[in-house]
Amino acid sequence: MSMRTQVGIVGAGPAGLVLSQLLHLKGIESVVLENCSRQHVEERVRAGVLEQNTVDLLNEMGLGERMKRQGLVHHGIELRFGGRGHRIDFDDLTDGRAVTIYAQNEVIKDLTNARLKTGAQIIFEVEDVSLHDFESPKPNIQFRHQANSETLQCDFIAGCDGFHGVCRPAIAAALTLYERVYPFAWLGILANAAPSSEELIYCHHQRGFALHSMRSPQITRLYLQCDPEENLANWPDDEIWTELQNRFDTADGWKLNRGEITQKGITGMRSFVAEPMQRGRLFLAGDAAHIVPPTGAKGLNLAVADVRILTAAIVDFYRTGRRELLDKYSETCLRRVWKVQRFSWWMTSMLHRLPGDNPFDQRRQLAELDYVTSSRAASQSLAENYVGLPME
Ligand code: RFL
Ligand code: PHB
User: Fold this and answer.
1) pLDDT for 117-162, tens place per residue?
2) From atom 9 of ligand 1, which residue's Cα is the shortest distance away?
3) How confident is the model at residue 213 (pLDDT cuts 50, 70, 90)?
């Protein structure tokens, strides 16, 4: 069986779905191929922080209705170290920009509903996806669906299939890879407990980093720095709560609200960039091309930034026949990607307990945190990166 569309998109994560919807708003057709089920994609617990650019875009796309009702707008974050909290005030430091706490899987539900409402094709549970002829003007994607072999003919392929997808490996020989794997991970939990603070808390502690985040006024999301090889079985619920409380302790007796833990997971940490993010008519976007450690809350936002750039380039091609923006896609994206890599690496290395427990590193981290929270210039640098650098 053979089908045709203008843009064949592999992956129904934030990158693939935002791209598909943006193209649709410009009158360009796409088909999205996803190897998981719709339910799995909509329930996967992941990111939580949307930067101002992402929120503005979702609103402009007409997708902001539920986000406006259920999202939590945050005008600052707390950095906690030495047993004391220090607030970074985004309102003051970024001229009123903010972030919104709205779970990635909720964004995915809103996008999927919007796409399907327009009659768009998102084909879930595809298997054996392979890319062909993308160095010619007539690329195609082959896959199996419900035991049928299918071919999707298209003008362009967007590789939005995340870090473990098939699109980046399809051009592996042409790529230069930059990578740093960190010697620590995050143990994350979701709990039926009211957040213990109105804002996110990034906590530096001798025992390791901890993060207090949330999903709603009833649900807390918490993370603990742990060993990448850590076995979840070694972490009964009580021990997680005790360890979190120890790390978040303050001199004035701050108490963490507890509740039933409904989800637990361990996430490895890496910085990764594949360059260039394109080959012929194949364009990589989001985690397929780059990974940031989650400390800066940037992965989803960077995926969205990529597909905005890709949409502008594809729209320009169909309107004018020119390839300039397409040819510059990778270069344009990478300018932002590397700034976000720098920020995410910096937040990570400032806040985590580093291997070897070198006392020099600990004192240096505390001095850096002291500087960041006491110098307006340094706080402003953190704030403008956290709420999101302006789109070029
Ligand atoms: P995704 O979301 O991984 O989507 C890729 C999709 O492609 C599908 N796929 C395939 N489909 C067809 N054929 C194949 N062969 C395929 N292989 C894979 C997958 O099933 C999937 O549906 O990539 P995308 O769209 O680039 O989006 C990236 C973001 O999901 C990611 O960067 C963020 O989740 C990272 N992240 C965070 N980002 C933020 O901006 N703010 C945060 O607060 C934040 N917190 C986080 C995070 C990631 C975390 N984990 C679990 C890695 C917190 C955590 C714990
Ligand atoms: C989250 O709420 O999942 C979250 C928040 C901030 C981060 C990473 C993850 O930096």
Assistant:
1) 999 999 999 999 999 999 999 999 999 999 999 999 999 999 999 9
2) 161
3) very high
d(CA 387, CA 373): 17
Domain 2-74+99-178+270-346 has CATH 3.50.50.60: yes
Instruction: Record the tokens describing residue 367, joined without a space.
Output: 């001095």
CATH code: domain 182-269+354-387 is 3.30.9.10
- Burial letters 273-299, b for 16+ CB under 10 A, else e: bbbbbbbbbbbbbbbbbbbbbbbbbbb
Q: Is 128 left (phi over 0), alpha (psi -120 to 50) or beta?
A: left
Sheet with strand 282-284: strands edge to edge = 121-123, 30-33, 7-10, 156-159, 282-284, 278-279
Ligand 2 pocket, residue 294 CB under 6 Å:
yes
CATH 3.50.50.60 domain locations along the chain: 2-74+99-178+270-346
Every domain of the chain with CATH number 3.30.9.10 lies at 182-269+354-387
Question: In ligand 1, which atom is closest to the CA atom of 16?
Answer: 25
Ligand 1 within 6 A of 99 CB? Answer: no
- Give 159's Cβ-side CA count (13 Å radius): 32
Per-residue pLDDT, 1: 84
Q: Which amino acid appears at position 190 of this protein?
A: L
Token readout for 313 is: 């380039």
**Residue 13 Cα to ligand 1 middle (Å):** 6
DSSP SS3 for 251 = coil
Q: From the CB of 8, is ligand 2 less than 6 Å away?
A: no
Residue with tokens 């903010």: 98
